[in-house]
Amino acid sequence: MPKSSQTPSEALQSFIDAFQTNPNALSKSLNVAYQSVTFILKGKSNISPKMALRLAKHFGTTPEYWIDIQTAADFAELSADKKFQSTLKTISKAQKPTAKVKTEKKTTTKKAKKPIKKQATFKRKKRTFKMKTTKKSKN
């Protein structure tokens, strides 16, 4: 089983070696393009959730195993990114609002009024139409 500190490409290569297969045979088994497998092996592509499901089914692991390896690699890459680290330093921590002290109000018992149901009435205007009549010309 691969170490958890491996990159996705290293983990996939170790599985390919352990199962004595090759990228071409693996791509056919996973029903994906050959480039999909080789791009992961070269570190040019990430392991997507769909690919994680395929790899898990093929190698008898869980999809979470592959996603965790990808996530760890993503965080390692971000940790090494100095520009992103300087951006993180500018973000301040959110503060929860302070709780307000509620004062008890004296309540008096009043009879609840029943709501008045209003019925809407609509009046329709009668429209009258006048038809234009044309006079017949006499010839």
Write the layout of secondary structure elements.
Blueprint (H helix, E strand, L loop, with lengths): L7 H11 L4 H8 L3 H9 L6 H11 L3 H18 L1 H8 L50
Helix pairs in contact: 2-3, 4-5
Q: What would CATH call the architecture of the domain at 8-77?
A: Orthogonal Bundle
Number of strands: 0
| CATH top level class name of the domain at 8-77 | Mainly Alpha
Task: Identify low-pLDDT runs.
Answer: none
The radius of gyration over CA amounts to 36 Å
Q: How many alpha or pi helices?
A: 6
Q: In CATH, what is the homologous superfamily of the domain at 8-77?
A: lambda repressor-like DNA-binding domains
Proportion in helices: 40-55%
Q: What is the typical, i.e. mean, pLDDT?
A: 85
The biggest sheet, with number of strands, parallel, antiparallel or mixed sense and barrel status, is: none
* Backbone structural class: mainly alpha
Polypeptide structure, described:
The chain has 139 residues and is mostly helical. It is flat and about 95 Å long. The chain has a domain at 8-77: lambda repressor-like DNA-binding domains (434 Repressor (Amino-terminal Domain), Orthogonal Bundle), CATH 1.10.260. The model has no long low-confidence stretch (mean pLDDT 85). It has helices at 8-18, 23-30, 34-42, 49-59, 63-80, 82-89. Helix 4 (49-59) crosses helix 5.
Features:
139 residues; mainly alpha; 434 Repressor (Amino-terminal Domain); 6 helices; 0% strand; single chain
